[in-house]
Specification:
The protein is of the alpha/beta class. The chain has one domain: Metallo-dependent phosphatases (Purple Acid Phosphatase, chain A, domain 2), CATH 3.60.21. Helices cover 32% and strands 20% of the residues. It has 8 helices and 12 strands. α3 crosses α5 and α7 packs antiparallel against α8. 49% of the residues are buried. The model has no long low-confidence stretch (mean pLDDT 97). It binds zinc ion. Zinc ion binds next to loops.
Amino acid sequence: MRYLVISDIHANLEAYEAVMAAAVPLAYERVLVLGDLVGYGADPNAICDRVRALAPHALIRGNHDKVGSGIESPEGFNAVARSAIRWTHDALTPGNREWLAALSAGPLVVDDFIEICHGTPFDEDAYVFDDLDALRAMHSARRPLCLFGHTHVQVGHYLSRDQFGLSTADHQRPLTIPLDEANRYLINPGSVGQPRDGDPRAGFAVVDTAAREVTIHRVEYPVAQAQARILEEGLPEVLAQRLALGR
Ligand code: ZN
């Protein structure tokens, strides 16, 4: 099975369209979506409509989907995120708000091999920032390959019997990570709509369970268009600026 894995779209329609176009020749069969469809970006309804039409094989919510749909308060959000999520909540159609509110919480087991979560398998809202977080996440995962989002950083960790390390030390993209049967893996496909690892290109991944490999990709998209949309909607300017920096 070949899965297309996308996460943290954040209402960035230009980035989403670029990812979906780049994924076509990669011959994926099913789609996995790791949450945060909305928040920050200017097109929450267009993204909801497209993801609904895509009918992903597995789809879980992110923290912005919870707050944007109104089922959780924006208390933990910083000022910029809070202002954007308030705008998002008001901009969403009642139908899309309801649909987002009903999305499943992670973690979610996809098959014998894969589990998905937004933040970590032990807490959907927790971040994997360092090695200790990654180890804890891998130990709590119920499948050898755990796919996660939330940090907007494209990264792969592995855990073998006696070693723990990074599968993504090489900055080349696309990068194929072979999956050893004896190991556990924790892989973030990167963010479609708001990368934060210094590379402004949209991130995504393809998992091939038969070949036992994950390939992480980056694709350029019209950043200036996404920025113009953010300003047009009166969202905080910094949200447009950060897209160009990938921060
Ligand atoms: Zn996010």
